[in-house]
Structures
1.
Amino acid sequence: MNTASAQPAPTSVCYHCGSPLGGSTAYSVLIDGRERPMCCPACQAVAATIVGGGFDNYYRFRDTAQRATPSAETAEFTAFDQPEFEQRWLTALPDGAVECELLIGGMHCAACVWLLENYLRRLPGVAAVHVNLSEQCARVRWSPRQQRLSALCRAIAALGYEPQPYSSDRLERLRRSEQRRALRRLGVAGIGMMQVGMCALGLYAGAIDGIEPMYRDLLRWISLLVSVPIVFYSGQAFFSGAWRGLRRGAPGMDLPIALAIALAFAASVWATVRGTGEVYFDSVSMFIFLLLGSRYLEMRARHYGGRLGTDLLSLLPGVATRLEGGRPHFVPPEQLRVGDTVLVAVGQTIPADGRLLDARASVNEAALTGEFMPVRKNRGDLLLAGSVNGAQSLTLEVSGAGEQSRLAAIHALSRHALAQKPRLAQLADRLASRFALAIVLLAGAAYLGWHWLDPQRALWVTLSVLAVSCPCALSLATPAAIANATAALRERGLLVTRADVWEKLPAITDVVFDKTGTLTEGRMRVAAIQPCGTRNADVCRDIAAALEAGSSHPIALAFAADRAVPAGARREIAGRGVEGTIAGRRYRLGSPDFALEWCPSAQASAPAPTASGQWLLLADHTGPLCWFRLDDQLRDDALQTVNALQRRGLRLHLLSGDRSGAVATMAAALGIQNVAGGVTPERKLDYIECLQRAGRRVLMVGDGINDIPVLAAADVSVAMNNASHLAKTSADCILLAGRLERLPQLFESAGRTLRVIHQNLLWSLLYNALAIPLAAAGWVPPWLAAVGMSLSSLLVVGNALRLRRHTAPTEM
Amino acid sequence: MESLFFLLPLAVLFAALSVWAFFWAVNQHQFDDLNNAGHSILYDADPPVADGATRDDDDHDA
């Protein structure tokens, strides 16, 4: 697909969403003085809204074309005005305004943020709009007398986005408040540090050139005043951390840090009050600021990785339709009870687990299984919350709502998986604990030693030992590197959710690929058209498109075309095909025996084409008209990825549950030697374990629920962006943009990261081995210790920053 | 140098003001999305008002 940029868009694609037009010129919108083609009424309406509001600049600012505009369910927005919804989502503010948080689907660049914020701000009664692109949400504040939630949602939908009101769950709120608290502490430490530094400069100048005691004391008292909030408010994190560690019996790096801060501060206060000795307020402030800064950055990196897939509420619809006495009532999905009857319209998400009451239904369980083909359900079958209703509206009887649904169980599993600490961090924790204890003992020994030798210096020497030991380098070495490498990859569309990955990647020897949805796009496409006899291929294609128009079945989408005039009297026979009337004639499109039911005699005279693949036949009462071959398109970067991985010396495998010959064809086309088709999930697991027993380390790339045990068994697992919810949360990495070419880059990045981690650890070891004995011997005054410690941490962080540098994409 | 007795406390006051302003900004969620905030300066703050959008009615009705 073309990516829209500053160049004028080619006239064969929709100016708004980039979908191909195919010759239709029915829709267009005047944008910036030129008529721009649109592919459908929806895009036309959205573009008109944008232009009507005076936001033409949106088309100049945006990076890429918006994806196909989703249809807005405006009927359900009116339900939002009911009291039970308002109560759930709106927070009342003291000045009478209300605030609501909404998830916004479909945002993809900063221009969308600009558009949404400015458009919503201009609506009557709206006081503030704040859109967060990273988290895909918006926060709106308005006056309830002048504006309603339903109207705001309708406005957002009119712009082409999908709004969903949202109330964050407890974990999310905790995470956010933790982040803000850390940032506030950092701010106090930073601003305070600058003030204390200013005074310290004066004191240093005074130490060199001479300073009157009166002014020296003034500077010291001011430093003390400013340091108090830094130590007790910002530094609190270390004190409580040290105390927690002590209580647990496993002191962490917080202990020497807390001791150093406490000692330095106490000694400086003493010196200020007594008017003697040295003060170290600037060292303490800088120490606290640097440490808090690195922890904050690491926390942000950690939280971002954890956000994906932990939002249960974003998978459920905002509104459920409960039938009470046969009449529909809109209720929030969590208020559904077992035994309720729920109506789900076409295209809507099912709000709770339940048993189907109708005779038949077709649902898409992609959110749960990753399988993009719809599943047929019969009366009494279990329908899962989170799946999307396909063919016709259905009614179900609730069997598990809210926390009792299967989706909630998956969600709980994923949260548990994410909460586990990676092995590398656990190792670092143990090491840090032992190191901390050693430092404290050493400092204590130094104190005792000096107390015997020269009591006046004892305190300062101890301080030096504690300060110079630089817990920073050790505790920063690994997290800093990992945070930077993760951020660099995330910017390119690969999300690493487990820190284990960095450790395990260099040892990987084999890569196993799934076929459908991984190497292929997971979408059907018309690959070949073979008309029977002298028929015109385009005419046949149009007939097929007309028959399939209006359906969201993946096969129908393959035919999706410009001319969306659906056939009359359309009938879909599940699993076999579709039938309809066009210009007075009845046609059938589907499996060969279905299509030729009207004239069985023709079956002999029109043999199926010999090439393998999925063939559909278009026929009418006279006989066969045209053959269509459908296939699942290979991703455009699949070949270059395979080549790059093979160049790295990795052995590649292709395992697929698909029984057809397409598996072997694809493997041959890509150059993968180890192929297996028709493989059950159990056999996939065996295959991987076999490799592992032979001493090989496996990286698995997959997308569906059938791959979950396999993903878990592999040493490193990568999920595609279109994978099921569970696959994404149990995988170690997620390809956010579905670009396979990120895989070779992942390997490269892991190699560099490990090198940096080793460099950092080596440095901190050398530094400590050198500096601590020097400090214990009394040769390092505390100020030098503080300087050394700060410089050391800066070096470690700076080294880690090298990982942010983007290398050029691996040459193909 | 006596001015130091006035200037230094003044500096501390300014520091306190900065901290208060920073706290306000943090509580206003301005620091929630650090990745994309930088783009907003590239765009015009006030898009032109198009006809009939939200302009008040002029007073010259017939």
2.
Amino acid sequence: MNKRLFLARMPLSKDDVKRLAELSRIELEPEEAARMEQTLDPILEYVSRLSAIETAGVPEVELEDEGLGFRQDVERGDNQAERSIILRNFPDREGDALKVPAVFENPKQ
Amino acid sequence: MKKILESTIKSAAHGLETGDFSSTELTKAYLDQVRGLDLSIHAYLDVHQDAAFLQAQESDERRAKGEALGPLDGVPLAIKDNILIKGQRTTAGSKILENYESPYDASVIKKLRAAGSVFLGKTNLDEYAMGSSTEHSAFGPTKNPRDLERVPGGSSGGSAAAVAADMCVAALGSDTGGSVRQPAAYCGIVGFKPSYGRVSRYGLIAMASSLDQIGPLTKTVEDAAILAKTLMGQDPMDQTTAAGKPFNPTFPKSLKGVRVGLPKQAWQVDGLDEGVRSDVDEAVEKLRGLGAEIKEVDLPYADEALAAYYIIMPCEVSANLSRFDGMRYGLRELAPTLLETYSKSRGRGLGEETRRRIMLGTYALSKGYYDAYYRQARKVQTLVRRAYLRAFEEVDVLVTPTAPNTAFKLGEKLSDPLAMYLVDVFTVGANVAGLPAISVPCGTDKGMPVGVHFVGGYMQDATAIDVAYAYEQNRL
């Protein structure tokens, strides 16, 4: 089933690259988009070799170690030094509030 | 002065202990070296002169009171610029973070502070650790100290160059597909990636969370072990850290009883330089001479591990880098709408390679392609892991070259990203399978360093270190 999907693989089109850039929230200049089209395709072609591998019944995750797992969601207390640096990093602020562009472009009155 | 700059962690610790020099003198020597050399090499993005002298002074005061903290107390280190040091800039080699001030210390930095280390500054890297040459840094490339027209490797090229050019005693890097080991090979030093889960990633700017590990770049294997030991340990701030086996290398002189495996499929790979092959063959003969049993082992999916990596990694990258949206920190290119603000901030602030990998990941995760790419890659990852497990039933360590070539010229591979990716062919398997791996210098080819690569079983870090140590000590 995987083989069929890959054999039908079409090279990336200009529209594919445009759509990908939109999904990735990345604005590309025309030359950048052209270069992306050129370079993405050979990479996708290369990684598509995985379709030839039989993976029926193979799990996606097979853990060696559980790691630490989740920790309790508790308040860590105030760290003023950390907080003031975070505020300094705000691109735009009003007092201690982060100022961002409006989410709704045409808010209902 | 030259001798003091050639210090290893071990010799520096000894010199500090016996009073040959102070941490302040040591720190000053390295900062002078940086001032003299770094204009041509560009290993450092930021030099923390004042902070370093303060740390050195505190170390000397501790020592004077008989309260020295251990082998790293007062030893000057360089830190890759994707690891956060509180109050200092962290750029990840990206324009988006050009003015970003780190709000906290990474866990590894906390541990090194507790050990009394001196931080000389932050080193250059490929943007967001994505690359094999450090040419993708938004702030210009780093040069290979052996040949300024060549790359130092990447993405931890700045750290590797700093160690190789005696601009620090040792350094930290991060390794997702080979980014500590390959630059170590290209620059002629030691680079070690611990087993996944050994070292906390808290405070490491995430690239691919299931593959990233912080590791040391050093002049010797013993130094790598000393530094790594300090970094290791479970951390409640990183739930992927694992206790694993205790890390206790024995630093043997002989390899009697050690089974060394040469993975058949890896050694058959296309594009392996003849000079590299012969240097590593010689290294293998050395191992035999030290008493190791050398045998060829079957390690299927060696090739496919690279393809799986170049699907899984971009997928995680596309998720991890979505936080760089111009909102809470970093470059914001304000536009008429929110959507355009996101797109312009990321379009202007992110470099081409970064954008490429985000888009690759977006593609592989999108509807209609998720099963064929991401899900299939994860299944192949399981097969790769199992292949290594089976190999480690027969052998204790696997040996290959670290890279198929030596350091290439600046600009040589920039127009062909795929050619750049193929350089990772030997290193990537250890990340995909979460295994410990170390690169050690084993000779030169046409004047440029060659690295030999040792991979151990999961959590068998000490075994990989021990074999590397025995080889290194008996090499010359």
